[in-house]
């Protein structure tokens, strides 16, 4: 399948003219019908929908709010959506968001291996923006601390453009993290965890009602970790405190306030090891470089972050038709990033020495995000409508102090002796101009169910993004984006769909010349089918898609800490996903993805995109071992296949890898003891090797034992 090229006028304003008029009329719920009829509220007395903010029992979520910003069954959304539940996160023993996405179709999890600086993953060949509770979480590079997975109720992956609802997302998709919220039922969980790399972690999660009538609920989550990593002299320490409170004065009103304080004390696990000596044989007859080599300096290297945030989620039902919502967040982040990495040319000297470069970046980021929504549920004739009107707003201010110094002193990679290097001084640092991004967007969406069989989703949005650099010229980008989807629900649970959608994403930050990055723009056509058997939560999805994106970022071939923008890229693919509730004691996840990417215009035209495997597949099974006659004993195992990928120039190939994971757990009364082993066979592998000359080591074997007590 190939998208037809757009004319210049269509590419700039693809929804103008009669197409815009028709879509807007439909999105506003068939205006003639509204003019002639009194709106009839939809009867919702039937089967109750799963609350997307509530805990899910098992691995299969049946509804999502991220796909439409309304509570909608996943089978009624004409877009590919995957949900990773808290139960799956716990069973698979993951330590980060990127690890939690290992078994999600179409996602290149751990794209740059174990990286203490961020969660990096690809979705359909693109870099997804991470959202938290429906509002943007990540802004630029190395400015947003990693989210602790223990705080999350679910992770939702929306594949394909979602700019009509969010404005800020690339064509590949987005990742929405949904935090745990206060629950009415009283419960407390205590966790103690130990593992290899001297890992020690303790956590508490407590929730319940604060008063007798249950109108005031609380939740308190805290976690502390002291740990080393697979890289020598690099720690992974964390303290996070996340209290929240929900007030429900009436059945129509709910207000949740959430606070977050998180501090990470770490270093840089990404050592940018040279290709020669890792993927390729070492020159001069030297041995291979140790995978746990620390290139930097112990008294210099650090990646310390501090994040403080307050979030408000308010919802009020005005009447039988209208509900309004207001979501707000204010956050402050500070990052202290210093590292030393190798010069790639030449890589190794005959004596095993390697030349090094020092880099420091100390950014601060303050953000205000808001999303105001009005939702209406009504019928016109034989058509049920869910109309959503919204306005969202972002204000992000960032500044930084940076330093760079080349040739600071060699290090022998086989016998490293630290301390002999040319240190950065205050004169090496410079203040970067303060950068302010203000984005706002108005959007309208109509979800229509016709005769209980046909489902149409239409949406339209206008975005305005202003990027102002201190001492420079302000740049303003405006864009209209749209989406259109159609589904048909067969009585046997099969629901085919087709959709078209567009993306627009302002890019925060500056290039190496202190110029603002251009916004990303994309479009996608998707055709698929979803199947949910009767009386079953199991969900099967198959899709094919064709997408294009302009102004995509890529690593700077001259400096690993900078980014450049290519012209136009494309991705076409097939995705197959099965989340199966085999029975009450057996869960199964299986998926396969084929992703064909290409640089259409710009640097390395005709080459495949860097770090995107063409083939990925995975299988995870978790089963209660009732046949052994030991109640509470369960085990899980998984296999992950990550196909080969290229360096962005089609000159260097990173080989494929197959990895095994396993878990076993025994629970009795309020206690549970679990053992997780990821990368069971301790494979040494590379997730990505880039044309500039460096490779990223994948996560080696991790072993964690967890003792949980719930009451």
UniProtKB/TrEMBL annotation:
Q: In the record, which residues are listed under signal peptide? A: 1-35
Classify the source by domain of life.
Bacteria
Domain (TonB-dependent receptor plug): give its ranges.
75-173
Which family is this sequence assigned to? Belongs to the TonB-dependent receptor family.
| GO MF annotation list | siderophore uptake transmembrane transporter activity; signaling receptor activity
**Cellular localisation:** Cell outer membrane
Source organism of this protein record: Marinobacter halophilus
Its biological purpose: Transports the metallophore pseudopaline, which is involved in the acquisition of nickel and zinc, and thus enables bacterial growth inside the host, where metal access is limited. Is probably involved in the import of pseudopaline-metal complexes.
Q: Does the keyword Kinase apply?
A: no
Supply the name of the protein.
Metal-pseudopaline receptor CntO
Could you state one GO biological process linked to this protein?
siderophore transport
Task: Quote any Pfam family the record assigns.
Answer: Plug
Query: Where is the major localization of this protein?
Result: membrane
């Amino acid at each position: 399948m190939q998208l037809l090229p757009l004319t210049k006028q269509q590419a700039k304003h693809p929804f103008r003219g009669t197409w815009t008029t028709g879509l807007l009329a439909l999105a506003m719920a068939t205006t003639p019908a509204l003019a002639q009829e009194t709106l009839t509220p939809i009867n919702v007395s039937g089967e109750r929908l799963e609350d997307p903010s509530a805990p899910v029992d098992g691995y299969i979520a049946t509804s999502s709010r991220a796909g439409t910003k309304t509570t909608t069954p996943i089978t009624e959304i004409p877009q590919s959506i995957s949900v990773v539940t808290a139960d799956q996160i716990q069973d698979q023993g993951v330590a980060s968001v990127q690890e939690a996405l290992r078994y999600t179709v179409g996602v290149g999890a751990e794209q740059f291996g174990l990286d203490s600086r961020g969660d990096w993953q690809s979705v359909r060949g693109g870099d997804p923006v991470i959202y938290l509770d429906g509002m943007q979480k990540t802004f630029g590079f190395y400015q947003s601390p990693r989210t602790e997975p223990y705080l999350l109720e679910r992770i939702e992956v929306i594949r394909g453009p979602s700019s009509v609802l969010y404005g800020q997302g690339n064509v590949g998709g987005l990742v929405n993290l949904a935090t745990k919220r206060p629950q009415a039922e009283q419960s407390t969980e205590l966790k103690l965890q130990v593992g290899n790399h001297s890992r020690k972690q303790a956590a508490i999660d407590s929730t319940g009602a604060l008063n007798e009538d249950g109108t005031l609920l609380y939740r308190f989550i805290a976690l502390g970790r002291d740990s080393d990593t697979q890289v020598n002299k690099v720690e992974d320490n964390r303290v996070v405190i996340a209290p929240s409170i929900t007030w429900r004065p009436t059945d129509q009103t709910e207000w949740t306030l959430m606070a977050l304080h998180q501090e990470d004390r770490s270093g840089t696990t990404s050592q940018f090891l040279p290709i020669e000596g890792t993927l390729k044989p070492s020159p001069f007859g030297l041995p291979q470089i140790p995978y746990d080599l620390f290139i930097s300096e112990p008294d210099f290297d650090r990646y310390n972050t501090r994040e403080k945030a307050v979030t408000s989620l308010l919802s009020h039902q005005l009447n039988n038709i209208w509900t309004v919502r207001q979501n707000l967040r204010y956050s402050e982040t500070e990052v202290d990033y210093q590292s030393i990495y190798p010069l790639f040319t030449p890589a190794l000297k005959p004596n095993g020495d390697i030349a090094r470069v020092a880099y420091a970046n100390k950014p601060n980021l303050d953000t205000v995000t808001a999303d105001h929504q009005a939702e209406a549920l009504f019928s016109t004739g034989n058509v049920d409508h869910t109309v959503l009107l919204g306005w969202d707003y972002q204000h992000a201010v960032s500044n930084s102090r940076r330093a760079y110094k080349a040739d600071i002193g060699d290090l022998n990679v086989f016998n490293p002796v630290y301390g002999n290097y040319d240190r950065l001084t205050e004169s090496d640092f410079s203040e970067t101009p303060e950068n302010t991004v203000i984005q706002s967007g108005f959007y309208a969406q109509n979800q229509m169910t016709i005769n209980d069989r046909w489902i149409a989703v239409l949406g339209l949005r206008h975005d305005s993004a202003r990027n102002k650099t201190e001492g420079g010229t302000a740049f303003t980008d405006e864009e209209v984006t749209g989406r259109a989807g159609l589904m048909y629900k067969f009585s046997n649970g099969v629901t085919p769909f087709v959709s078209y959608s567009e993306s627009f994403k302002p890019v925060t930050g500056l290039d190496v010349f202190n110029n603002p990055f251009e916004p990303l723009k994309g479009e996608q056509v998707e055709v698929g089918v979803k199947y949910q058997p009767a009386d079953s939560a199991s969900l099967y999805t198959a899709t094919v898609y064709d997408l294009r994106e302009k102004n995509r970022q890529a690593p700077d071939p001259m400096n690993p800490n900078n980014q450049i923008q290519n012209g136009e890229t494309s991705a076409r693919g097939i995705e197959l996903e099965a989340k199966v509730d085999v029975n009450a004691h057996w869960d199964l996840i299986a998926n396969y993805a084929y992703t064909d990417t290409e640089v259409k215009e710009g640097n390395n035209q005709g080459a495949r995109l860097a770090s995107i495997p063409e083939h990925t597949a995975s299988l995870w099974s978790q089963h209660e071992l009732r046949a052994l006659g030991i109640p509470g004993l369960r085990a899980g195992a998984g296999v992950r296949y990550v196909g080969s990928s290229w360096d962005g120039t089609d000159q260097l190939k990173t080989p494929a890898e197959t990895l095994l994971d396993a878990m076993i757990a025994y629970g009795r009364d309020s206690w549970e003891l679990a053992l997780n082993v990821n990368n069971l066979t301790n494979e040494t592998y590379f997730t990505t090797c880039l044309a500039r000359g460096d490779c990223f080591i994948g996560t080696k074997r991790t072993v964690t034992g967890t003792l949980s007590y719930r009451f």
